[in-house]
Amino acid sequence: MYLIGLTGGIAAGKSTVAECWQNLGAFHIDADQIAREVVAKGTDGLEELTKVFGSQILDSDGNLNREKLGAIIFSNATERAKLEAVVHPRVKAKTLALLDAMPSDAVVVYNVPLLVEAKVDYPFDKVVTVEAPREKQIERLVKHRSLTPEQAIARIDSQASPALRANAADVILNSNQELSLLLKDAELLWNQIKREANAKFSA
User: Fold this and answer.
1) Spatial distance between the Cα atoms of 6 and 25, rounded to a whole number of angstroms
2) CA dist., res. 109 & res. 126, Å (int)
3) Could you tell me the sign of the dihedral formed by the alpha carbons of 148, 154, 157, 160, in that order?
4) Please, what are the averages of pLDDT over each run of 10 residues along the chain (203 residues)?
5) Are the beta carbons of 173 and 131 closer than 8 angstroms?
6) What contacts 126, CB < 8 A, 6 or more positions away?
7) Closest among 2, 52, 7 to 25, alpha carbons compared
8) How far from 109 is each of 28, 50, 72, 171, 195, CA to CA, in Å?
């Protein structure tokens, strides 16, 4: 297969690019979605998290209360590392199983916000990061996710810096522009990816 690692800061536009490429024919694997699945009610992942953080992170129905967990981990690197120790190995195992099941001629987009932080080392053919200015990220998080500016800043600061993501990437897509222009850039890059993928498959 041809494997793309798609990363970027929170609220930078990763999902927009991933959806664009999926509409153009890519297979999409969403690390955030997998991370939710591995700590869903009834999983050993949620059982392990409850042992680590206590039942305070559960809602009245026994599901993970993400707001309560977020209040614990986003401003505390030590607590965040405890969460990652539970979640990251489970996400990796499920992702590798999904990749193994892909067709040999698939172009796969692995949408993974924590590519740098989790030291994701899959055999990517290309790594792409989507970036927006910090003030734009804060604005989007406050407007679209109903966070306070302080909560938004804590989430941004919990991630790798734009410089670290750029250093890990082959291509940087700028989302500090009109949506139509970002999608145009994404489509141009997709055309390049398809050429490279076809060359790889025919080699």
Assistant:
1) 16
2) 10
3) negative
4) 96 95 97 96 97 95 94 89 94 96 96 92 96 95 93 91 96 95 98 98 92
5) yes
6) 2, 4, 5, 170, 171, 193, 196
7) 2
8) 5, 32, 31, 14, 16
